Amino acid sequence: MDGANSKNKFYAIKGGSSATLQYHQSKLHSKLQCDSDVILRWNELNYEVRLGTKGNQQQRTILHGTSGQAKTGEIIAIIGSSGAGKTTLLNALSGRIVGGRLSGQILFRGAKRHPGSFKRVTAYVQQDDLMHPLLTVQETLSYASKLRLPNNQYSAEQKAERVNTVIRQLRLEAARNTKIGDAATRGVSGGERKRVSIGTELLTDPRLLFLDEPTSGLDSNSSELVVELVKKVSVEQGLAALMTIHQPSARIFNIFDKVILLSQGRVVYFGPTSTAIEYFANIGYQCPVHENPADYFTDLMTLDYRSDDALARSKIRVNELSNRFAGYASLQPDYPGNGRKQLAMQLPADDDPASKCPTSHNSWFYEYATLARRDWVNIIRNTSFFLSQMVQPLVMGLFMGFMYFVLGNDSVSVQNRLGVLYIIVVQGTFPIFMPQLAVFSAEQGITTRERASASYRASTYYASKTTTFIPIALVANTIFYACIYFISGLALSVDKFFIGLALFHGLTSVSISLMFVFGAAVQSVEVAYVLSTGVITTQLLYTGLFANFHTVSQALRWIRWLNPVYYAYAALAQNEFRGMDLTCSKDMQCYESGDQVVKSYGLDQFTIGQNGLFIVAIGAIFYVGGYACLRWKAKPKFTWI
Ligand SMILES: Nc1ncnc2c1ncn2[C@@H]1O[C@H](COP(=O)(O)OP(=O)(O)OP(=O)(O)O)[C@@H](O)[C@H]1O
């Protein structure tokens, strides 16, 4: 549908002569023939969700037969009051709708969309600007270009040039070296942040750009700049941009080529912005001269809940508006949704050239190396995390070492040695787990966004996280172990030192694998904290120190088999006590040898080697589990038609 001759079309609706109607229909029909620049067309889209509990389920229709189309170079706004279905429509069109039942037809360049290739040619800018806060604007775009642009089409110089072009296009030169920032770190302004978000999506030179509320939270100048720049880029790059927007200012409203006005999931108007006022005037709703048309239309489309009467009146009005538009649209031969069956039959199922694109851009190693470099930069700049990981073990190692300074060989030292070993296993759990969970969980929004746009494989991301989190923890824990080992005076021998260290590192790695499971599987970091605290505390209670396994109730004894902390503690105890001669004091329980200690605490079930194998096996299960959760969670299951 075009703005040309729209006035005559209104006469047709209002009962103009059939000759006039035929004239417009034939003119618009011929226009349809040369609509090769239609990039996206959607016909009679319906979206339904099930609400309520089992046994009391209700169906709710959120989109009711919406149709429309977008052409290259166009910028289209989806406007409506809160809950009108704007985001639902945007998500349906961009292939990012989760759950529910979507029906109707969406055609990309006249053909059915192919999920893998459609992702490659579309870009989606989320409402929340999820980016790494410690990277600069330049770095953010540069890593995005490395990850998202294929090496077989872009050299390193061309990628750098692409970044520069986007920085220029989005007027980000001044902020180039400023960090993105977040609530804790001051960074770029809200408008700049939004432009960087858009920039990361524009790098791939998409054909379709979807933006969810790109102006929300911005002042009017920044909002206008964002919309103006999207318009400029759409024209320059020949892409179609669709954005949801809440009550834009009159100036912003006029930047859009077309608008989709939605109310209660129904289209109230779809067409050129320039003729919207005229359309509404022709059906009896004249926008006052000095009123912002976007505000006027939004008011018309909004249900008024102030009283029962007002609600009933507004419902009638909204129904009338959507029915009038349905009547108007049905007279337009080129209006999407009309002649849908014919269109579907004419088109091949999947003739989109992009459907031949590979699912991943670059080699596994290149992707991994890029992600690992980005992770290391982030970790080193995250001072509080870095210090917590490096300084805490040093301080704790010194503090605990001096608390047990130079252990003796009498019965008292047995209690102390068991205490030192316990502190070692505790250090292999909470102090590593919690800060790493905080960092890993905080990133999951970014990961989901990047994975949704197929920026990298789950496996390269997981490998990168493994090779950043585990080495940091192992270095930190080596410092801790060396301090506590030498200062407290655990059994001194090269073998014992390294066997103990290996067991400690094994336990640390298992804790990190468990952290991956919680971080990837549980969406809310608070819930992940609560659940993991319960699991780790249980592990720490079932080491054999607080309750001898031979006396633990049969119903709970199985916990030991799944408990890496038990295996680590038993092996550390054997490593420490085996072969040790102890002196007896009269007034205490007397152990003559270290072997007796191990036996009496029930820590002799398996050899050191067997305990080590159990640790490795449990670690492997957690590690694979973490990967499975990441794949399953970080890749949302979108509903496709
Ligand atoms: N999966 C779903 N399950 C249940 N209700 C849903 C679902 N998706 C959307 N809705 C409902 O559909 C309506 C439209 O949602 P949508 O997010 O598209 O509105 P919107 O116009 O973007 O609103 P806002 O401007 O407030 O973001 C809302 O009432 C929302 O609660």
From TrEMBL:
Q: Where are the transmembrane segments?
A: 383-407, 419-442, 469-491, 497-520, 527-547, 612-630
Which SUPFAM superfamilies does this entry report, sorted A to Z? P-loop containing nucleoside triphosphate hydrolases (SSF52540)
Please give the GO cellular component terms listed in this UniProt entry.
membrane
Q: Indicate where this protein resides in the cell.
A: Membrane
Listed A to Z, the keywords are: ATP-binding, Membrane, Nucleotide-binding, Transmembrane, Transmembrane helix, Transport
| Pfam families associated with the record | ABC2_membrane, ABC2_membrane_7, ABC_tran
Residue ranges of the ABC transporter domain? Answer: 40-289
- Give the membrane topology: Multi-pass membrane protein
Q: Which InterPro entries match?
A: AAA+_ATPase, ABC2_TM, ABC_transporter-like_ATP-bd, ABC_transporter-like_CS, ABCG_dom, ABCG_transporters, P-loop_NTPase
* Molecular function GO terms recorded: ABC-type transporter activity; ATP binding; ATP hydrolysis activity
What the entry lists under CDD domains is as follows: ABCG_EPDR (cd03213)
**Record-linked PANTHER family:** ABC TRANSPORTER DOMAIN-CONTAINING PROTEIN, ABC TRANSPORTER G FAMILY MEMBER 28
Q: Which protein, by its recorded name, is this? A: ABC transporter domain-containing protein
Origin species, per record, is Coemansia thaxteri
